Amino acid sequence: MGYLCGVIPPRPENEAARLANLREYAILDSLPEDEFDDLTTIAAHICGTPVSLISLLDEQRQWFKSAVGVPEGMEGSPRDAAFCSYNILDPAAPLVVPDARVDPRFENNELVHQEPHVVFYAGVPLVSREGYALGSLCVIDHVPRELSDSQMQALKRLARQVIKLFELRKALAEAKQRAREREQAYRILRDFSHVIAHDLKAPLRNIRQAGEMLEEDYLSLLPEDGAELLQMIQERAEDATDMIEGVLRYSQVARNLREAHEEVVVQQCIDQALRHLGYPDDCRVVYVGAVERVYTSSLALLQVIQNLIGNAIKFSNRDDCRVVIDCVHEPGNQFVFTVNDNGPGIPAENQRDIFRLFHSAGTGKTRSHGVGLSIVKRLVETIGGTVSVASEVGQGTTFTFTIPDQD
């Protein structure tokens, strides 16, 4: 036999906005979570009641995010029968019902005469950051009673913790969504850059081949200004090819960094970078650091060191080109690498832009489009480090990058 719910509780004046705010938390019908169950268990223990609930008020129902002391499978009730429907009317005040059997609002309520047999009820509104009462943290007993001041204060504090869990849960969901969106955007950008760069390589290759054929067969027939124009066309085609290769490298650079980190021998990493660069005879590269091994992405460290050494060699204007690499360990914090060269240095006004993709630097045979240093910055930041530069014209350049200590 069922019971009437008694007096139909009114709806808050801001009901539409309250429901919209509740839905922003995406918590209705979510799976049980230990953090919420811990709070209802503590509330029941402190207040000495057999029942404790975290109750949320949807449009037509009351739903329990966490419930202690109710029959298994009981997930809520019709909203018009919910004591919490009265509790949300004043977000600033708790609702205490010493004996629901003699309260005109609840004397015929089905929750009083059936499970969970509510006689005593004390609830604190769960008020969101926006000021809406989303539901209640409540305790229930099957006999009339009261709560002490200290018990009520504890219930209020626990209600604030429930809201903090709601906010953390919401923030985590939003962060995951942003991460998914960034990953999707990255995939689209990576695929787009790959397709565009790939499609541009063929016509540029044809331009370069045509230029080579013109130079081989007709250079002697061209006037001086015609030969200069032909050389300019070939140089610009070569520049464009380098930029396209840079786009491809930049779009692929972090793709494999999800591989497990490993122990990397620093000197071996430097030797490998030099092999890739062709062991330049006109520049001396030495490692003077005391750190023998680091635990990081071997791929990232190799690419960073290779790009920085290659950059120093490319811009060197000295017969005694020298690159000195050092590494110090800050225990429990990070490894600090420095790559110092004795090259021409970088003007102060250019130092802020050198890590920007396609930043142009240098002239003549050392003209650069900045892809290498952009890759360095992206790699270092992907593995959790930082990179910076210090330089003085005529005195060389020092690049400093850090790698988190994984120990």
Automatic annotation (TrEMBL):
One of its GO terms (molecular function) is phosphorelay sensor kinase activity. SMART domains: GAF, HATPase_c, HisKA. It comes from the Bacteria. Keywords: Kinase, Phosphoprotein, Transferase. Its EC number is 2.7.13.3. InterPro entries: GAF, GAF-like_dom_sf, HATPase_C_sf, HATPase_dom, His_kinase_dom, HisK_dim/P_dom, HisK_dim/P_sf, Sig_transdc_His_kin-like_C. It is an enzyme of class 2 (transferase). It catalyses: ATP + protein L-histidine = ADP + protein N-phospho-L-histidine. The keyword Acyltransferase does not apply. Gene3D superfamilies: 1.10.287.130, 3.30.450.40, Histidine kinase-like ATPase, C-terminal domain. The keyword Phosphoprotein applies. Residues 195-407 form the Histidine kinase domain. PANTHER family: GAF DOMAIN-CONTAINING PROTEIN, SLR1143 PROTEIN. This is histidine kinase.
